[in-house]
Known about the structure:
Radius of gyration of chain B: 23 Å
Number of strands of chain B: 14
Family (chain B): Belongs to the leucine-binding protein family.
Number of strands of chain A: 4
Largest interface: B-C, 72 and 71 residues
Largest sheet of chain B: 7 strands, mixed
Organism (chain B): Streptomyces guryensis
Region (Disordered) (chain C): 1-46
Helix content of chain B: 40-55%
Low-confidence stretches of chain B: 9-34
Strand content of chain A: under 5%
CATH class of the largest domain in chain B: Alpha Beta
Shape of chain A: globular
Protein name (chain B): Branched-chain amino acid ABC transporter substrate-binding protein
Oligomer: heterotrimer
Structural class of chain B: alpha/beta
CATH topology of the largest domain in chain B: Rossmann fold
Structural class of chain A: mainly alpha
Shape of chain B: globular
InterPro entries (chain B): Leu-bd, Peripla_BP_I
Largest sheet of chain A: 2 strands, antiparallel
Amino acid sequence: MHTLPQQLANGLFLGSMYGLIAIGYTMVYGIVQLINFAHGEIFMTGGFGALTVYLYVLPDGTSMWIALPAMLIGGGLVSVLIAVGAERFAYRPLRGAPRLAPLITAIGLSLALQQAVFNWYPDAKTDRNFPQLAFGPWHLGSISIQSGSVFVIIAAPLCMAALAFFVRLSRTGRAMQATAQDPDTAQLMGIDTNRIIVIAFAIGGFFAAVAAVAYGLRYGQIKYDMGFQMGLKAFTAAVLGGIGNIYGAMIGGLVLGLAETMATSYIDNIPGMQQLGGGGWSSVWAFVLLILVLLFRPQGLVGERVADRA
Amino acid sequence: MRHRSLVILTSVLTTGALTLTACGSRNDNKGGGSSGKTEVIIGVDAPLTGQNSATGLGIQGGVQVAVDDANKNNLVPGVTFKVQALDDKAIPASGQQNATQLVNNDKVLGVVGPLNSGVATQMQQVFATANLVEISPSNTAPELTQGKNWQTKKVRPFKTYFRTATTDALQGGFAADYAYNTLKKKNVFVVDDKQTYGAGLAKLFTAGFTKAGGKVAGTDHVNTGDTDFSALVTKIKNSKADLVYYGGQYDESEKLTKQLKDGGAKVPLFGGDGMFSDTYIQTAGKTAEGDLATSVGQPVDTLASAQDFIKKYKAAGLKGDYGTYGGYSYDAATAIIKAIGNVVKDGKIPSDARAQIVDQVGKTKFDGVAGPVAFDQYGDTTNKQLTVYQVTNGKWKAVKSGTFNG
Amino acid sequence: MSGIGPVEPAGHVEAHTEDDSDARPDAPQPDVIGTDSPRLTDRWHTLTPRTRTTVLATAAATLAAAVWLLAAPPPTTPPKEPSTPWPSTTTAFHYKGVADPPATASTRDFRFDVSVHDGPPVTVWDINAAPAGVHTSTTPPTAFTVRAGTTHHITVRITVTHCSGLPLNVNLPFLDVTLRNTHAIQHYSFIFGDRYSRDLSELLHTACDATRALPSPHVQPEVRVLTMWTRRVPAKPAESDLPPSSPSTTS
Lengths: 310, 406, 251
């Protein structure tokens, strides 16, 4: 069991990434009750945006300390533009339509984005290598932290804290809460709900781009279809935490990441469970956890049934 | 005045264009491209995008070079060969669809592929029903040629299936021997990707390794497409294994080795031919140093015949890793082309051409770019060579080569 | 270029890009109303005669160069002499069986045929039966030379010197050989299947079982070495999962 601290850390890194993406699902759902299934692809395009900045905008051999902020901005810009564009041109015209219409649109958009990157981004038909931070693993007691994970453990809490302050304290943040609770009344009170919705999409897009950069740094490669699996996991995380609740998204992400890690490491040590443990089963256990949580708390871990969703 | 210069410009361009077309047509004639020739298609099925595509494109390229050579040298009089390459994305169901598509095209008289053993299992029946010959340059799962119970009783399941690569029965054993006797590793952690190829190879390696006296420190499985192996890495580190064996493709192992070394486990990763790809080193970078892979065949730089092939491959500007299966793909395509040459005379394709070609491929015997090409009664290659490679200074370096003599 | 190009729509402002300017020269010029950018031909006329000459000359020179390059016969690479093959590609070892009744329990003679089927003569510099703990000697002693088309019968005497760490069951035993021809010196392995592995395992067991009390029974000569796999590996290797603690299943 002395591997536990390391495994907890592993789960934390993975979960932070899920959480960052889950924010996008949960904010959009909280405000317009739309499950934006294209969000996984927004995450993916953020990664490619950052890669584009590194490969084609910055001069060769730029230090990662300079490149990383530029990549974040570039990736963020791409993700935000696509997220906002999707809202403006795909979802807004369908705002009054039956629930199913925007959902199908989201799935279609997801496929379109994936195929667009697949076909038109140079050499994206297979994995593309992502620039790496060039410092070795750090050791903290029995825990070793890879260079790629350092970014996510710094970026995720920062992003979350910033978002929490923004939603709680800023005027726009309060307007978001109001819109989430009752869009019609909010509009009557003089809130430009369209603007609020755009902001929600933009924040989700930016967080997804941060997650994509974290993904690239951590795994060394990005791929046109990486949004599918990560998007699905992040959506699970959002539901697990209580969809519509931004704290829920982060907590759901962490719980999911930890659950996967624990399933990989410890299930097969339980007598009689050897066949059901290990890396190949980690997703299965994550979803078992989801089902269990939803059985007893359909609103998710920290979700509340109706009010105060944003 | 205005018209005149336009005329000059136009005529200059027209002359240029005509000259170019003239060149083109003369080249065509040299290649025997005059009309009245029968077009025959050599099908290719391999992953051309996504997972495994680096080695998959190497297969397509190898076949392309073989077909270009055949056309240039007019190997089969009256026939022009074409390549039709289909992408199976390493998904068995796509492979089966592609097989159906190839079978339904009358011009297709032979198929090279697929890359993955798991895909092959879904394609064999389709080809067998249509009597269409299929030669895989890379499938290594023993049951494809020798039946499910190949350890006890070898039965050839499909008479249309051949392969130029040797089997994992040999590869797994060779790797196990190298790991135990040469590397002096005694404690291995075995990981596989649950696919036909990966799981089969890992099992055969484990069998050989434990038989020699080694111990298995632990086992685990991953999913293809997985990217996060941090939990697995912690497990491996904790198991005190001195070697990690991975049964699967480079797509996962390149990430696994990176996370393994970054995670502080300084043990080499050992894999099979699915891992023997330049992409592996490019992706894993320095962390790949010291990792090992067995691959089918001899290293290309020891084969004089392969040098010419590599030159042509590069000259044609083809993509992909020719180093892994390119030579074998060339030989597989050439075997089919030679068989077609024995069946199709003066461009006339007999009605039972496909069946005749299967017979001819079975009897094939020639010196290919990757060594002598001939098939035994199961459709397996008789040229059973293996090489252990190790990443040294960012390159795969052959550290041990061997030939199996029954 | 036959001169048949796309019909230019009248009034299309950008109709005369460089690509289109080679359209049929005698075709009536379309009426262009309200052209606001100078057309290529107009631009051409605004150039000084000297520039025009230069441009035309350059174009002609480029074209001539292109034609020359394309029309020139491809550099005829002389038909490459089939370069000397590496020794391992021309040499074959075949196992012929155990030679004589063993002199001692720890020594046995194995007969092999060495043949070279092609190329220059190959010198066998060294033959070594891989595992540590055995000593190898050959008759005729190395180095000996095998000419193309000939076969040498050799005997490899393997003596077990110490048993610790020696794997008694070998699946794919091989001879590590150093080969040399005019091209290269090569270290190469020749791997042998059932028969040699059975015979070698038998020797190792005879030599070592006395000193190393093995819990497992002797390998019977008629038991093929591969049986271990047959027993342990289920019929469908791909779909079954061995429990992770594999050593117990294969001990």
